[in-house]
Write a structure and sequence with these properties.
By secondary structure, the chain is α+β, with helices and mostly antiparallel strands. It folds into two domains: 194 residues, Nucleotidyltransferase, domain 5, CATH 3.30.420.10; 75 residues, SH3 type barrels, CATH 2.30.30. Helices cover 32% and strands 28% of the residues. The protein contains ten helices and eleven strands. Strands 3-2-1-4-5-6 form a six-stranded mixed beta sheet. It has a five-stranded antiparallel beta sheet with strand order 10-9-8-7-11. α4 links the parallel β4 and β5. α5 packs across α7 and α6 packs across α7. The radius of gyration is 20 Å and the shape is elongated.
């Protein structure tokens, strides 16, 4: 059975170019601080947009602020992922819909981890990577970063490294790239040209898809389900005691991570399972 979009004409697709800004580079250790998107047709016609700053519930490192300009003060009173992610998914829903991002693995990784933490099933729509498409269709560009391609192709420039602005750049770039391949007339041909990514594939590494946890950690599922708190000894160079309310377990690049509310830090933190020396449930 083929993909449900296989024979769908490009003119009948709705695209959502999206972008994220974050506290760092790791989807496991870092958090979203902004999520934006623009919904448009294959010819570039803008339908609607979505944009929200996000309180990451942890400090934004100065080196990250230096890139996107988002400060702790700017997000202090903003909603958390728990409300922004569902709002974004509601806005981005629709028939014949394709997500698009530049270096999609990065943005999709943050979205996947956020979905897994919130236990929200991922949307089934595919994600198109304009980085892969740009490398294929514009090989002469000095490099294939979003800003470089935008300026090399003489598209509308402007600000960068803010989620809404970059979403518009992705829309402009994808619209032009599609015009470069007039022989590509349906989704099947486009997906065969550059490949696609699915959040559902990434989500297989989430808590609900991990078949087994390491010896000694089997009870973590029950702890998460019941909302219990644990006291653990965590060794990341120096062993220290932490009181944590676990929320989810993720597999990322070969390592298992436990995310939860750290009572010492007063915010959500992530811990590698193989660095948890021991743990016990805190009795009421």
């Amino acid at each position: 059975m083929g993909h449900p979009l296989a024979d769908t004409k490009l003119a009948d697709l709705t695209f959502v170019a999206f972008d994220t800004e974050t506290t760092g580079l790791s989807p496991i250790a870092s958090r979203l601080v902004e999520l934006s998107g623009v919904k448009f047709l294959s010819g570039g016609q803008l339908l609607s947009s979505f944009s929200s700053l996000i309180n990451p519930e942890q400090p934004i490192p100065p080196e990250s602020t230096a890139i996107h300009g988002i400060t702790d003060e700017m997000v202090r009173d903003k909603p958390s992922c728990a409300s922004v992610i569902p709002d974004f998914l509601d806005w981005a829903a629709g028939e014949n819909l394709v997500l698009a991002a530049h270096n999609a693995q990065f943005d999709a990784g943050f979205l996947e981890v956020a979905l897994a933490r919130l236990r929200i099933p991922p949307p089934a729509c595919p994600i198109l990577d304009t980085l892969a498409l740009g490398r294929l269709l514009v090989p002469a560009a000095p490099n294939h970063q979003l800003r470089t391609l935008t300026e090399y192709l003489q598209l509308e420039s402007g600000s960068y490294h803010r989620a809404l602005a970059d979403s518009h750049h992705v829309r402009d770039l994808l619209t032009l790239l599609l015009k470069m391949v007039p022989e590509v007339k349906n989704w099947h041909a486009l997906s065969e040209l550059c490949g696609v990514l699915y959040l559902s594939d990434l989500y297989e590494d989430g808590l609900d898809r991990i078949d087994s946890l390491p010896d000694g950690f089997e009870s973590i599922r029950d702890v998460i389900s019941s909302g219990q708190t644990i006291r653990m000894v965590y060794s990341n160079g120096v062993a220290a005691s932490r009181v944590v309310t676990p929320q989810s377990v993720h597999l990322w690049r070969g390592n298992l991570y436990l995310s939860g509310f750290c009572h010492l830090a007063g915010s959500e933190r992530t811990f590698r399972l193989d660095k948890i020396v021991s743990f016990q449930v805190v009795s009421d």
